[in-house]
Task: inverse folding
């Protein structure tokens, strides 16, 4: 029943509008809270599940033993939990959340639902950086400090790629289209260089290079996790601060958004730099984990809508859940072998994406 | 305070679109700019709301609009564009809430929600308030954009062919609405249209 515009209606009607919206917003918060609980549950299940058969009670004792000295400590279980399982689960959560946040923001800022954190070529650049480092460390037999060099180099190359993307698209005013185009060009370029390197590499080097690109949580260390956490703690609040601007940017073109007081080029450039930073840090440690950055925002948008105040946290949660599921699967399917997470995520990601394409076509994004 | 434009000129590269345009608008006054398609009406509006850089002076009272910061300007000028852009999953309420962006820092306050609720009720959009914007008809979308512009609490209201997607009934409703709002809140309104009959309204 439509009311005519200009019909003031008495105060009660306006209050109704207000209350309906409050309920709506609360519903979204509830969803997010439930998501958190599901994530937490999955984390516990993931730590419990594994090749070494550890009972649930023993898991709890092993975790408690670190904090409460009086608890009896089984050194085998303690090692497995604290050096193998907890690191990979927690790194998985942070990596999933970071990549998902990255993807969400990039999709908003480019107004393009097909964009992922890797659209600007970062993954290819990181792979090249890692390959160069692998060749270098292996030819100089620097195996011990080798991993450190690989991480740093992958990171440097990622940042270099981001810089190049901005430089290349400057002529076109760093518009969304120009940035994406530059990213694609650089992706091909870096991929070609990586392939060249692989062509000349020895068998041992080649194996290491290819393995790096699979993406893995197996080597996760606590200091790496700390670094990722710090980056997330700085960057995600910044993204949340931009929520209103991101909403404005998806709701309007650059010109229209400017009339709402939104400085679109500053927002776009800042967000792309932050996204690239988060992505670069994560994949330098884990190798290439694709799909999460693309799919998680879409899944979250389906449940919670496009309002970034709620979408960002929801994306982070769905990204974390996806990675934990993928990791648990990868560890159990052909136990005791561990299928690298980058591979499992791609397999899970494809049916998810097909599902997204089949349902609700009109509703969630054009 | 009145809105005064003097000697406005604009060119796209070498092509001169606007030359020496001057106009005045008082509080509560509605000005219609009529003309055939391609005559530069949209360009004029874009120059007026500072989307395009033009030559000439644009003042509101004694405030030089060209020297204003983007956010303050958004609190003064509201713009309803001609093309209804894209499709995206934002509810009508959230869309109108975007009009409060120039006033919101970290969180939207009670006043922001109150204003949006009132506007939605006033414009007859309450039955659509939680519907996704991209599910609406052209006419409904236009109303939402006008509501969003109103949420900015502007003193200047620029609309680019605001009724081109509406049927006659809605066109008349929207104009009646604009007339009432202009008078009630003392907003100077500039509308571009290509239908002289409507201009007469």
Result:
């Amino acid at each position: 029943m439509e009311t005519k515009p200009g019909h003031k209606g008495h105060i009660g009607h306006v209050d109704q509008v207000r209350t309906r919206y409050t309920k709506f917003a609360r519903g979204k918060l509830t969803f997010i809270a439930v998501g958190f609980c599901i994530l937490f549950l999955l984390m516990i299940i993931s730590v419990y599940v594994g090749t070494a058969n550890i009972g649930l009670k023993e898991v709890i004792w092993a975790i408690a033993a670190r904090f409460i000295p009086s608890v009896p400590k089984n050194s085998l279980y303690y090692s497995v939990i604290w050096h193998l399982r907890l690191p990979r689960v927690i790194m998985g959560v942070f990596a999933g959340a970071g990549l998902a946040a990255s993807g969400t923001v990039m999709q908003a800022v480019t107004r393009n639902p097909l964009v992922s954190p890797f659209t600007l070529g970062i993954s290819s650049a990181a792979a090249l950086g890692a390959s160069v480092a692998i060749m270098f460390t292996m030819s100089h037999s620097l195996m011990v400090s080798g991993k450190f060099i690989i991480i740093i180099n992958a990171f440097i190359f990622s940042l270099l790629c981001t810089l190049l993307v901005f430089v290349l698209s400057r002529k076109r005013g760093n518009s969304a289209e120009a940035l994406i185009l530059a990213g694609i060009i650089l992706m091909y370029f870096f991929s070609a260089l990586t392939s060249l390197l692989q062509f000349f590499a020895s068998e041992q080097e080649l194996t290491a290079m290819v393995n790096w690109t699979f993406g893995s949580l197996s080597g996760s260390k606590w200091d790496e996790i700390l670094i990722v956490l710090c980056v997330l703690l700085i960057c995600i609040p910044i993204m949340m601060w931009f929520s209103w601007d991101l909403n404005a940017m998806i709701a309007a073109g650059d010109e229209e958004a400017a009339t709402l007081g939104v400085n679109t080029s500053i927002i776009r450039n800042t967000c792309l730099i932050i996204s690239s930073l988060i992505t670069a840090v994560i994949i330098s440690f884990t190798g290439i984990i694709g799909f999460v950055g693309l799919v998680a925002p879409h899944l979250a948008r389906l449940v919670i809508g496009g309002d970034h105040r709620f979408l960002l946290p929801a994306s982070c949660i769905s990204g974390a859940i996806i990675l934990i599921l993928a990791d648990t699967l990868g560890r159990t399917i052909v136990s005791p072998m561990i299928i690298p997470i980058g591979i499992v995520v791609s397999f899970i990601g494809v049916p998810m994406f097909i599902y997204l394409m089949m349902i609700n076509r009109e509703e969630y994004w054009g | 305070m009145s809105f005064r434009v003097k000697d406005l000129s604009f060119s796209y590269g070498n092509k001169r679109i606007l030359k020496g345009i001057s106009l005045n608008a008082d509080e509560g006054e509605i000005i219609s700019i009529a003309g055939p398609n391609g005559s530069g009406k949209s360009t004029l509006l874009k120059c007026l709301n500072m989307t395009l850089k033009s030559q000439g002076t644009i003042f509101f009272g004694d405030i030089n609009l060209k020297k204003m910061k983007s956010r303050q300007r958004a609190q003064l000028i509201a713009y309803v564009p001609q093309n209804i852009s894209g499709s995206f999953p934002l509810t009508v309420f959230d869309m109108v809430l975007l009009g409060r962006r120039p006033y919101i820092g970290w969180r939207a306050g009670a006043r922001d929600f109150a204003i949006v609720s009132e506007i939605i009720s006033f414009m007859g959009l309450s039955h659509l308030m939680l519907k996704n914007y991209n599910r609406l008809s052209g006419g409904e979308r236009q109303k939402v954009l006008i509501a969003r512009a109103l949420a900015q609490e502007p003193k200047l209201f620029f609309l680019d062919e605001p009724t081109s997607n509406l049927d006659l009934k809605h066109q008349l409703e929207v104009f009646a609405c604009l007339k009432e709002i202009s008078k009630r809140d003392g907003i100077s309104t500039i509308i571009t249209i290509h239908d002289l009959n409507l201009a007469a309204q």
In short: The CA atoms of residues 6 and 22 of chain B lie 4 Å apart. The helical segments of chain B are 41-48, 70-76, 92-98, 110-122, 138-151, 168-185, 196-200. Chain B has a mean pLDDT of 84.
